[in-house]
Specification:
165 residues; mainly beta; Elongation Factor Tu (Ef-tu), domain 3; 10-stranded antiparallel sheet; two-stranded antiparallel sheet
Length: 165
């Protein structure tokens, strides 16, 4: 089995224009809402199709035009690209490309802290309406909240619900 190692580099594009390199980011988790039913007490069952809010966090160093692109108070299409090392069972190392495509709306424009001799670190949070993740060219997941798509490893969990509506 292959092992994955460190991320070597990353790039952020906003509306198809490069906005930053070497940013730290946390892609959203997919948390299903639950319903409680009585079963020897309370049993909380996940409700496929009802999701909690999805957020994206980005930390960037420095104030520049990329920061301006990240701070638009409107819907944005973001693309993250990153490369990670992959170590095979025989010890050989190769690179694996990953991509994430997100439609986001900013929740705030962060304040800028300036200190002599230190880099300005800026953290922004976004509401995510669409999130698609690829690893080595294969789609891992797609969540499109506005079009009722929840696809994981090729299975669309909302298809049967959409048929009934």
């Amino acid at each position: 089995m292959d092992k994955h190692s460190a991320v070597i580099a990353d790039t952020l594009l906003i509306d198809k224009v490069k906005a930053a390199e070497d940013v730290s980011f946390e892609l959203p988790g997919i948390a299903l809402q639950t319903a409680d039913i009585p079963a020897m007490g309370t049993l909380s069952l996940p409700l496929v199709g009802l999701l909690d809010d999805m957020t994206l966090s980005i930390t960037k160093i420095g104030v520049d035009t990329g920061f301006g692109r990240m701070s638009k108070l409107q819907k944005m299409a973001m693309e993250f690209r990153w490369v990670q090392d992959k170590v095979a069972a025989d010890g050989s190392v190769s690179h694996q490309g990953c991509k994430a495509f997100l439609n986001v709306i900013p929740q705030e424009i962060p304040g800028v802290s300036v200190e002599l001799g230190s880099a300005s670190e800026l953290s922004e949070t976004y509401t995510v309406t669409r999130y698609q993740l690829f690893a080595n060219g294969s789609e891992i997941l797609l969540v499109d909240r506005l079009n009722q798509i929840l696809r994981v490893n090729g299975q669309d969990y909302m298809a049967s619900i959409r048929k009934l509506l």
